[in-house]
Structures are given as C-alpha cells and as structure tokens.
Amino acid sequence: MIKAWLAAAAACAATFGGTITYNYQGATFDRCGHGGCPANYTSDFDLASLTFSNPLAANLSSADVTSNLLSWNIGDSLGYSAFSSSTVGAAQVLLSTNGSGAIVGYQVEAAVQMGWDVAMFNPQVVGGGSGMLFADAVDAVTNTITDTGFSASSHLTGQWTEAVNGFQGGTSSAPVFLIGGVPITAVSGTIGGDGSQEYYSFLWGGGSLSIGASVTGAPGTASYLLTGGGSNNCSNLGSQSLNSSNNFSNTLSLASLAPGQYCIGLSASDLADPNFELTFSTPVSAVPEPTTFVLLSFGMATISVLRRTHNSRQRS
C-alpha cells in the first residue's frame, strides 16, 4: 500500500503540467499614519497573488524566487495601491518553505521606485519610525498632484492558500492527488470527451465541506455530474448535475465529515472540451508528503496490532 501510494505521488509530481498560484490575504490594518488616513482603513488589508510553473520546492530558506514568477499581483483590498507584472512597477519575493513546500517565511514587496509601496513580512519587521513590528503594510498615494497619502499596517501575519491551474485529474477509481504545501482553494482544468472524468483526492480535517463546480464553454446540450466520496468511492457521499438550466454551475455540500482522505470530481456526457473549476469553500490539504504518510501508516499499523493483541487477550 505504501509503495503504491509513493509511486502515485511521484507520478503526480512528475506529470504536473499546469501552473500553481499562491494567494495571500493579510490581516486588517490596525495602524495608520503619515496624514490623510481614510476612515475605512481598518477594513483594508494586503493581497498578493504569485503564479509559478511548478509547486514551490521544499526547505527553501529566504530564496529569491522573483525571476521564477510567471505573473504576480500585489496590492490592498480597497485598491489604494495596486501593482502587477503587467503594469509599471517592480517586485521582490523571498520565500522560505518547510519539508512539504508550505510557505513558512516570506518577504514580498512591490514598488514604483525605491522603497516599498505594498509589503508583507514574516517574520515581522520594525515599522519605519514607529519602532513597532508590522507584518503587512501599504503606502498609498491618494493625491498624485500633492503627493499626499497614508501608510497603514498590521502587526498580524496573514494566510497563504493556493489554486492549481490546468491540472488534470484522474478517474473516479484512481483520482489524482492534489499537490502543494499550503491549503488549496481551487483546482481547474479541461474535461473533454463523452465519459471523461476529472477526479482529485485530498485531505479534510473534519466537519462540513461545500464544493462548487463550474464549466465554461460547454454546448447547451452538454451535461456534467459532480460527485464526492471517500478515498475508495468517489460518489458515495452525494452528487449534483451541471447543465444549461443552472448555467453549468452547482454546489455539492457534504456535512459532518470525519477527518480523512476524500475525493471530488466531474464526469462528462459530451464530446466538447470545456474548462472547469472546482472551488473549496474552506481550503483543503494535499495528501501528506511521503515521509509523513509512512509515519502515519506505521502508527495506524501499530494501533491495529495493539487492538488485535487486546482482543486476543479478551477472548482467552
């Protein structure tokens, strides 16, 4: 079982042909200075989106990955400052990851010229002139004629999630493991051919889970079936149809799930090859890295042996 899992995980990593987007959402700003602070600054926060051709490598240490970016967007949620790879500006992205490739340290900055205009830091840094730690900041120019504006910041770190783009799944009997080290909010790909299936396996920490699905570019006569289930049966927990009557969009709600491994996916009944996206209302996790899985399997095997020994003693 362990060998089969390791082989499947290695094949999944080797065949990754899409892109992966790491999304950051900061905590709301709790400090503001340098004049003209708007009344709504306490509802504002930093946002960043970093897209790479492959998942981040494990055990990075303040690695400068700026040149590896396919695209990026950095700004604040209210739009006082916004920069991207398609606009004038510059960015620097330094990242640290753990053994699973999850982002555990970061320094992300974007600016028009010298200095930063939007920044995210973990570990936190001392704010300019304030002597206080901050994790996120935005330096916004609200009037370009007078060059006036404000600087807002938060001392709390935000959260990274990821979206896996153009990542093809497997069949309902052999779903493909979702990849990446940080919580996953979405996966997209194409689904073509009558009877085609795109199924994915993931880990869930327990509780209710809502999964949305949408198909774009499908002919009006097409239909698709969204199903979810356990690791050995991808349809035993529920299903929803996607067709022209619901604009090829529907949601599958799974309530009171125990912690464990699950799968979700679509099957097609049309020859077209449209795009689809699956979105998780609460981020899910990729299947553990091989070393974690081996330790988990060993622990479960130990528990099984102890239970058999205990039952044998009770019978005797």
Report on the structure:
With 316 residues, the chain is mainly beta. It folds into two domains: 20-160, no CATH class; 166-290, Sandwich (Jelly Rolls). The chain contains two helices and 21 strands. The chain has helices spanning 2-14, 290-315, and strands at 19-25, 31-33, 46-52, 63-64, 71-76, 82-84, 90-97, 103-111, 118-126, 133-143, 148-154, 159-165, 176-177, 184-190, 197-204, 207-216, 223-230, 233-243, 249-257, 260-268, 275-284. Mean pLDDT is 84; it is low at 1-14 and 290-316.
Overview features:
316 residues, mainly beta, Jelly Rolls, nine-stranded mixed sheet, seven-stranded antiparallel sheet, 2 helices, 12% helix, disordered N terminus, disordered C terminus
**Proportion of residues in extended strands:** over 45%
Could you tell me how far the N terminus lies from the C terminus, measured between alpha carbons in angstroms?
Answer: 32 Å
Question: Which structural class do you get from the secondary structure elements?
Answer: mainly beta
| Counted beta strands | 21
Low-pLDDT segments: 1-14, 290-316
What's the number of domains? Answer: 2
H/E element sequence? HEEEEEEEEEEEEEEEEEEEEEH
C-alpha geometry: elongated
* Radius of gyration from the alpha-carbon trace, in angstroms: 23 Å
Q: Number of helical segments?
A: 2
Q: How many strands, which pairing sense, and closed or not: the largest β-sheet?
A: 9 strands, mixed
Instruction: Provide mean pLDDT, rounded.
Output: 84
Q: Give helix % range.
A: 10-25%
Strand order of the largest sheet: 6-5-3-1-12-14-21-16-19
